[in-house]
Amino acid sequence: MGKLRETNFRNRLKLTFIMSLIVCIMLPQTVFAKKSNLAEPVVDGDMTIEEGAEEYIQTEEDLIEDMEIVIEKLEKLDIDATVIKEELKARKENNKNGIATRAVTITKSEAELFSTVKPVNIKFGITAFKQTNDYYCGPATVKQVINFNTGTSKSQAFYAGKLGTTTAGTDMTKIAGVLNTYQSRTTYKYLSFTSQLMWRNRVAMNTPSGIPTVMDISSKATNWLYETNGHFLNTAGFDCRTSPETVWICDPHPVYHGVHKSTVNAAFTVNNAHFRKAIIW
Prior knowledge:
By secondary structure, the protein is an alpha+beta fold. It folds into 2 domains: about 60-115, no CATH class; about 120-280, Cathepsin B, Chain A (Alpha-Beta Complex), CATH 3.90.70. About 45% of the residues lie in helices and about 15% in strands. It has 9 helices and 7 strands, in the order H-H-H-H-E-H-H-H-E-H-E-E-E-E-H-E. Strands 1, 2, 3, 4, 5, 6 and 7 form a 7-stranded antiparallel β-sheet that branches. A hairpin with an 8-residue loop joins strand 3 and strand 4 (about 230-240). Helix 2 packs antiparallel against helix 3 (about 80-95) and helix 4 crosses helix 8 (about 195-205). The longest helix is centred in the N-terminal third of the chain and has 38 residues, at about 1-40. It is globular, with a radius of gyration of 26 Å. The termini are far apart.
């Protein structure tokens, strides 16, 4: 009986030792995981309509102006714009007669642009500026674009003041005006895109001239580097050689700041997931 009790005691002692060893091994991993989650801030730098941002309602006149910008950019690239000019003429006539031609479907001109605008392996030498707090992605993106377009820029706080940025973030409708005030390489315009092809064509069209396009994204960790309900960044190049096509992204994110490569589909998806569905191009 004494030997049996001694055996049971030794078995319990072994079990206690094994359980203690398991806890010691797992505890550091658990603490590390919690620290990792706490170290990565959830950025939310765009101001919603409920938080005071202006709602943008795109009109037929806005789309006509967009087509005029397309023609101007194509001519600078020595690309034939005949098809777009014909569609623009028809849109203007319809608008004059009170006939709305706004379409969510792919137009003939968008298909034409896809076949003619093919930037090959263009990557801008652009600097990514890490945003100085979790709601300064708007000012940081504006700084990135202005610094690239002019070779110099002011502080994020300066642009935040011009944008009217608050702790709620930045109103996207204010960005084009500030960009146009502090750089003159191009005239930026807010555009609500209606298809992935329309989005792709505008980004691709800006690329040969070295013009960054500003985006506002909403993403999940499953389809982007991080999760956000609203975050500004800009494009930094394009490559049509790959299938699918790829786009370079210049991101001021506090953790993932830098220039990263993405598929066109992935970049469009997170931009399209945002409530504005818009670019500054």
